[in-house]
Amino acid sequence: MHNMEMGSIRVRVPYSLLLIGRERGRYLPAILAVAFCAQLNILQWGVLLGTLSVLSMPIDRSGAEVWVASRNALSLELGHPIPNEWEARVASQPGVERTETYLFGFGYWHKPTGGSEVCIVVGSHLGAQALGALVDLTPDMRARLTEPGAVVVDAAELDRLGIHGVGDAAEVFGHRVFVVGLLHGFKSVGGPYVFCSQRTARMILPLFQEKPHDTMYLLARCRNATAVHELIERMRQYPDLSAFTREEFSRRTRWYWLTQTNAGIGMGCTAALALLVGLVVTSQTLYAATAASLREYAVLRALGIARWRMGAMVLAQSFWVGLFGVAVAMPVIFMLGSAANFAGARVLLPAWLFIGGNVLTMAMALASGLAALRSLRLVEPITLLR
Amino acid sequence: MSSAKTTLQARHLVRSFGAGETKTTVLQEVSLDLYEGEVALLMGPSGSGKSTLLAVMSGLLRPDSGEVIALGQQIWQMSENEQRRFRLRHCGFIFQGFNLFPSLTAREQLEMVLRWSGGISSREAERRVEEILLRLGLEHRSDLTADQLSGGEKQRVAIARALLKEPTFCFADEPTSSLDWHNGEQVVQLLRTAARERGATIFIVAHDARIIPYADRVYYLEDGRLCGKAISQP
Description:
The complex is a heterodimer of chains A (386) and B (234).
Chain A: E1 2-6, E2 9-13, H1 15-22, H2 24-55, H3 57-60, E3 66-70, E4 82-83, H4 87-91, E5 96-110, E6 116-124, H5 139-145, E7 150-154, H6 158-161, E8 169-172, E9 175-183, E10 193-197, H7 198-204, H8 206-210, E11 214-215, E12 217-222, H9 225-236, E13 241-245, H10 246-260, H11 262-292, H12 294-302, H13 307-342, H14 351-372
Parallel strand pairs in A: 6-10, 7-9
Antiparallel strand pairs in A: 1-2, 3-12, 3-13, 4-11, 5-6, 5-8, 5-12, 7-10, 8-9
Helix pairs in contact in A: 1-13, 2-10, 2-11, 2-13, 2-14, 10-11, 11-13, 11-14, 13-14
Chain B: E1 6-17, E2 24-35, E3 39-43, H1 50-57, E4 65-70, E5 73-74, H2 80-90, E6 91-94, H3 106-117, H4 122-135, H5 151-163, E7 169-173, H6 181-198, E8 201-205, E9 217-222, E10 225-226, E11 231-232
Parallel strand pairs in B: 3-8, 3-9, 6-7, 7-8
Antiparallel strand pairs in B: 1-2, 1-4, 4-5, 9-10, 9-11
Helix pairs in contact in B: 3-4, 3-5, 5-6
């Protein structure tokens, strides 16, 4: 420890921190490695969360509290058509205020400029109290969408769809569609979303032309939370149905994509690699720093000072290196995240991700300190006697 | 016979290195006594076993046979932890080179030893560091890092570090080898003062014959054996 006079206050600075401060050049690689590790991990997961959030956005931005689907629907894209008449199963339950059908399917968008794109067609009711319609749809858009063939798309998808904006037309499975409004924040990693009325969806999706009396989902709103859970329990008793709260279905959809595609595995591997790089660089730096002071530590050992004191110093240094690395990383993460969002990519950086990422990074730094402790085995006073 | 109290006794010390045909016996039945308040100087040519003898007598290197009795205790019958505690309480060391943390100030190097030794309050540690800095004439250089000190100043810090805990024994291996004689003489004077004023037992291993006048007792080691009797100076 070292006492520093700051006015009338005496501040005690630990030796571990003093050495890092005065030998910045030696410790900088470790600090940068930790910062790199924290940035890579948090930003990667931020990108993944952003990507996954778009996949569940039609669920998250709907007004439905309960989603009833075919048996064992793994995600929003993986439902099967169910009969419209099963809506009565839902509507007849106590505490249910409103029910709706909801269409969802894949289509071919034929661009006016030539070529085609797989798109995701979402057909919902459009009234002010509608459950399936996105809360982002303005009253004006909802009114315009009632016209057959009218669709709303994300502004960032215009290029992909080969159109320029509102008023432009294209074809889906040979049916003319035209854009009546643009949304923001719905740019998908899969096909572009095409939001429309149920009537338009039935018109352009061959699946529902073949099955005009089917729907993909049944949505419900209940009087209270108890009614929501009772409804879900009862629907689950039907062998041919599955039912979820909005949050459950959203999480299920994201979880499916995270675990059943290579996205999650790939991201996990890269995160592990970043941790490994951070671990190796930091532990080697701390090892080298300790090894450079072996003679000084050996004198302290000769004087009878316990080895654990030196071990504690190495661990304290790993803590400070971790803390400085995280401090360097945070503003960079914010800047890169903002830049990515500005460029149209969706990067989510919730507080829990920061906390989790930083805890993981600090654990990595401390683990590297533990790994560097092996250098203290070389501290032997007898080596000082030539 | 000396009237001073014997503090450290070496009896029939044998120490060898290597094995088989390459085995070299560095210490051969070495016995000697060190006394309270005296400076003992061990001289001899390179490779004669001086540093090995210092290491064995100070508890840093186990002998093949023989015994070392310090303050009435057999130090080579102690456990490793007991030895460490013994050194913590009773021993100071000065090695060749200065072995100071380059980026810590003189004051920090000394405070570190006291704080890490434990059992001492911050206020007491500061007081003792201040006192020894003053005694060694380092009070105006105390906030310079080791890198900023001259060779003589560094060695004085190393001596301060060795004497800081007011040890019973101070073992010095070639303490003047990195210094000119002006600084070297100061170092030896400081060690002699520690012996005279505090009754410390100082054991110096050196080549430099200019130290002889400052020693109370001079031993000569050649090929692992003490030659003749210790020269006791008035």
